[in-house]
Write a structure and sequence with these properties.
Strand content: 25-35%
Shape: globular
Strand order of the largest sheet: 9-10-11-12-13-14-15
Number of domains: 2
Largest sheet: 7 strands, antiparallel
Distance between the termini: 22 Å
Structural class: mainly beta
Number of helices: 1
Order of helices and strands: EEEEEEEEEEEEEEEH
Number of strands: 15
């Protein structure tokens, strides 16, 4: 959630952001499935100082049902959007809950033991910390890319062939686009990769491809980003003042790991809409107290 609306730049409560202007962005979510991770919820608040200070840590709050209330997570420095891994261990009749920042095994609670930690999934590559890298312009070239994927997701695109692996984007419309190729080297530990190549669409500035590399420059993973233009979606919510939104929503991403032991995954987010929300919804989205609700 972007916090750049002037009408929200004020105090919104002790259990929420002190001031909207103090946050670069707020993100979060809640698990409903599988059952073992049900009600796990989190908030990530990136301070605005991160624009100039690459070492600035995010404020991350995690709610696990056994803990009864949200707790601040002592998560490592995150280069992007925080996504938790939820692991379960121990016996069904009891176990120790281990959440970063709380300490492991402090108490024995009914139910399975749970732990949360950051994993590189979901919107990886879309929210890099640019000042954590050194960049250079490699070239400007034409590429084939699925910039406007249309109705791509499995929940909407009946009859599309996603291939045996479920990663295929061959059914999506691919266009010839002029792109800027940027190469970067990480300046600190914890970045997405020691080296990476980011390919951006020249006209829209949307990311098309991301290639992460090891220190020697060999590819570790290749990501393809798929967007959908709001003008091609019927009944798309209007922008401020009733204007057309005219945005590219990130509806999917495929992450292919190079090597037999490298993870590959596909993210779909067809219901994403890039329009501002009202005051009430903004308070709910930024409040850490809301993490304990909806159980």
């Amino acid at each position: 959630m972007r916090r750049d609306r002037a009408d929200l730049d004020r105090s919104i409560g002790d259990d929420a952001l002190p001031r909207a202007s103090d946050a670069l962005f707020v993100s979060g979510g809640r698990f409903e499935r599988p059952f073992s991770s049900r009600h796990l919820a989190w908030r990530q608040i990136r301070p605005e100082v991160a624009l100039t200070d690459a070492s600035a840590r995010d404020d991350i709050f995690v709610y696990v049902s056994e803990a009864r209330r949200p707790r601040r997570s002592a998560s490592a420095w995150v280069d992007g959007v925080f996504t938790p891994r939820y692991t379960v261990s121990g016996e069904a009749n009891g176990g120790a809950i281990a959440v970063p920042g709380l300490g492991a095994g402090r108490s024995t609670l009914p139910g399975a033991a749970a732990a949360t930690e950051h994993i590189g999934r979901g919107f990886t590559g879309l929210t890099l910390r640019p000042n954590a890298y050194s960049w250079r312009l490699a070239e400007v070239r034409d590429v084939l890319a699925p910039l406007n994927g249309g109705l791509l997701c499995e929940s909407e695109a009946r009859g599309f062939d996603f291939g045996a692996s479920g990663l295929s984007l061959a059914s999506a419309p691919w266009d010839l686009r002029q792109a800027v190729v940027l190469e970067a080297r990480g300046l600190r530990a914890g970045v997405l990769a020691p080296r990476l190549t980011l390919i951006l669409d020249t006209e829209t500035q949307q990311p098309l491809f991301l290639i992460t590399r090891n220190k020697a420059g060999s590819p570790r993973a290749i990501a393809i980003f798929v967007h959908r233009y709001s003008g091609d979606v019927s009944r798309y919510p209007e922008g401020p003042g009733g204007s057309d939104a005219r945005v590219f929503d990130p509806v999917a991403a495929v992450h292919y790991g190079v090597g037999d032991d490298a993870p590959s995954w596909r993210r779909e987010s067809c219901d994403v809409r890039s329009t501002p929300v009202g005051d009430k919804a903004a308070r709910r989205m930024t409040s850490t107290a809301e993490l304990a609700r909806g159980r």
